[in-house]
Specification:
By secondary structure, this protein is of the alpha+beta class. 17% of the residues lie in helices and 27% in strands. The protein folds into three domains: 64 residues, RNA-binding S4 domain (Structural Genomics Hypothetical 15.5 Kd Protein In mrcA-pckA Intergenic Region, Chain A, Roll), CATH 3.10.290; 79 residues, Pseudouridine synthase; 115 residues, Pseudouridine synthase (2-Layer Sandwich), CATH 3.30.2350. It is built from six helices and 14 strands. Strands 4, 5, 6, 7, 8, 11, 12, 13 and 14 form a nine-stranded mixed beta sheet that branches. The longest helix has 12 residues.
């Protein structure tokens, strides 16, 4: 563990301890800050304090942070489309069927392996260099990836401040009752099946999905969904909860609908102010061929 000490500056007076920690380059994220607090690795003036503790001028915050460890990842050749790229970050168009980072059952062939040649970096986890947000393995579309610790920290700040606009296209079974909708329903691991996420949970976390209807068909509707919170499986769970299950979704929706081998969910647009220049960055991804074929079949059945 590495020990760091930071004196609270005047501009941080009154700030919550967890928020202050997440802004430190050595910590880098709210999740990392909460993890350190729960492990009692944070002290204010020599004493542990709760995450909601309000800081005063001159307070000394001491943190024991894990030493960074070298990555064991090896680059792999993947055919990836880069939608935007500069010295600080890149926006990549992830194909379906590729996991974002290594995990159990996906030790190789991940997006991270394919991005190593693009000098991605940043974040506290050596096996997830540059990763700011994620997509499910069978969800296609756009992600922003950092190329340095500072870029990663600034992109995560944009994410927390909801300045990172993420819009998805999804085809659902059913007819929405209105042109636009907002779903506010906490979700978490299901009480009875830990492999699923649901509203029936002992660990609820706030989750919000906004959607609007793009096109209606006889049995289906094409929606544009925008994230406010990035919870796992959120769009799929929320839409299923209002009787609009995602076409092709084998877990929460209609498996095999319209011949789909995966859920019809595509991260079609990403927009944000550049974390260093403030200039607008916007990228769009065309609907992949398998989803386009399903959409055409839904239209033909109308």
């Amino acid at each position: 563990m590495a020990e760091i000490e930071v004196e609270v500056p005047l501009e941080a007076v009154g700030e919550r301890l967890d928020r202050f920690l997440s802004g430190l380059a050595e910590v880098g994220s709210r999740a990392a800050a909460e993890r350190l607090l729960s492990q009692r690795r944070v002290k204010v003036n020599g004493s542990p304090e709760p995450k909601s503790h309000r800081l005063a001028a001159g307070d000394v915050v001491s943190v024991s942070v894990p030493e960074s460890r070298p990555s064991t990842l090896e680059p792999e050749q993947l055919d990836l489309r880069i939608a935007f790229e500069d010295e600080h970050l890149l926006v990549v168009d992830k194909p379906a069927g590729i996991a974002v980072h290594p995990s159990r059952g996906h030790a190789s062939g991940t997006l991270v392996h394919g991005l190593l040649a693009h000098a991605v970096a940043g974040g506290e986890e050596a096996e997830r260099p540059g990763i700011v947000h994620r997509l499910d393995r069978d969800t296609s579309g756009l992600l922003v990836v950092a190329r340095s610790d500072e870029a990663h920290r600034r992109l995560q700040q944009l994410l927390r401040r909801r300045k990172l606009v993420r819009e998805y296209l999804t085809l659902v079974r059913g007819r929405p009752r209105s042109k636009r909708g907002r779903i506010e329903a906490p979700i978490g691991r299901d009480r009875h099946d830990p492999t699923r996420v649901s509203l029936d949970t002992d660990t609820p976390r706030d989750a919000v999905t906004n959607f609007e209807v793009v096109e209606t068909m006889r049995r289906h509707a094409l929606l544009r969904a925008a994230l406010e919170t990035g919870r796992t499986h959120k769009i799929r769970v929320h839409l299923a909860a209002i009787d609009l299950p995602v076409a092709g979704d084998p877990v929460y929706g209609v498996e095999g609908d319209l011949g789909l081998a995966r859920q019809f969910l595509h991260a079609a647009r990403l927009a944000f102010p550049h974390p260093f220049t403030g200039e607008p960055v916007e990228a769009e991804s065309p609907v992949p061929a398998d989803l386009q074929a399903a959409l055409e079949e839904a239209r033909l059945s109308s």
